């Protein structure tokens, strides 16, 4: 379930209470008149079944509370209450399938910003990938995959395309279009420094048989990117973060960027171009898969679907 806190002007309180009281997915309704200091107003709190959150937030949004007050939503890990069980049972759909759009937008917005932390992680990941390439070490390549933060803006881009949030799309594109070149330039400088002091000595990158899968673009490159993007978006909307690790080590976005840099510093432009192609295939595949998952998501939880009816029937019999 989710915990909702509403701060609203006193003249809107009755309307807020009506919306929350009449919705079957809402319970544990609390009113504190005059409790809000900044902004001034009343505080209303309630617990909401995840599958009811979008409808409730849409109704509350019509009151203009984002301008005159505030809406705060946070997940609840454990709720021991028959009223909560009843609210989840009566709310249409299944909590595991529910996409709370405002929650998803807030999460992806935070992870898609071009800032010092994002650049640091991406640069470190590209440097790790370059080390993995020059040492022909798949283990180091996997480490670079896990460290890379690029899934955040890719997921945000998919969400923004589905929800038509163009400001979020612009933020994501800025993070990707500036982040990767900056990280790759820093990696190139590091590679040149390694070559200058004699740490890196490669006649040709084509002899690196343990990590050559990075630049070998083929049909399965797109297939893996699509599957990883779909799994990543599902993990994001269902808050199953453990699955994201598998996504990170499935696609070769950061390793492709690192391989392209190493090949370029070695004047092997064909390999650099192939690696760049691998990078592009992974980026596009992840976004496309994310869009498809989000676009199909509403059809997974229709109020009158056989799955929802069966679930409600079984839950009703188990009581």
TrEMBL record:
Q: Which UniProt keywords apply?
A: Membrane, Transmembrane, Transmembrane helix
Please give the coiled-coil regions recorded for this protein: none
Q: Which domain of life is it from?
A: Bacteria
Q: Which residues cross the membrane?
A: 114-135, 141-162, 174-193, 213-237, 244-265, 271-296
Keyword Lyase assigned to the entry: answer is no
**Listed PANTHER family:** AT15442P-RELATED
- Per its record, how is this protein called by name? DUF389 domain-containing protein
């Amino acid at each position: 379930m989710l915990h909702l806190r509403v701060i609203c002007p006193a003249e809107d309180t009755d309307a807020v209470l009506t919306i929350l009281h009449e919705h079957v997915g809402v319970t544990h309704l609390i009113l504190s008149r005059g409790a809000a200091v900044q902004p001034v107003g009343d505080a209303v709190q309630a617990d909401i079944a995840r599958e009811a959150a979008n409808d409730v937030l849409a109704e509350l949004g019509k009151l203009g509370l984002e301008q005159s007050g505030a809406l705060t939503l946070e997940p609840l890990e454990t709720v021991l209450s028959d009223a909560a069980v009843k609210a989840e049972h009566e709310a249409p759909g299944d909590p595991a399938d529910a996409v709370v759009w405002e929650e998803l937008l807030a999460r992806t917005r935070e992870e898609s910003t071009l800032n010092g932390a994002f650049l640091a992680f991406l640069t470190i990941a590209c440097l790790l990938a370059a080390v993995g390439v020059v040492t022909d070490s798949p283990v180091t390549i996997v480490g670079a995959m896990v460290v890379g933060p690029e899934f955040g803006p890719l997921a945000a881009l998919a969400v923004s395309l589905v929800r038509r949030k163009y400001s979020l799309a612009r933020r994501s594109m800025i993070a990707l279009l500036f982040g990767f070149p900056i990280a790759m330039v820093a990696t190139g400088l590091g590679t040149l420094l390694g070559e200058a002091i004699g740490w890196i000595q490669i006649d040709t990158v084509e002899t690196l048989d343990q990590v050559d899968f990075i630049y070998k673009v083929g049909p399965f490159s797109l297939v893996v990117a699509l599957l990883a993007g779909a799994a990543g978006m599902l993990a994001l909307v269902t808050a199953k973060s453990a699955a994201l690790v598998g996504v990170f080590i499935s696609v070769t976005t950061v390793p492709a960027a690192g391989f392209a840099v190493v090949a370029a510093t070695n004047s092997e432009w064909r390999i650099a171009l192939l690696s760049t192609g691998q990078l592009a295939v992974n980026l596009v595949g992840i976004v496309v898969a994310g869009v498809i998952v989000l676009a199909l998501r509403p059809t997974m939880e229709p109020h009158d679907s056989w799955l929802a009816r069966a679930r409600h029937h079984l839950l009703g019999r188990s009581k």
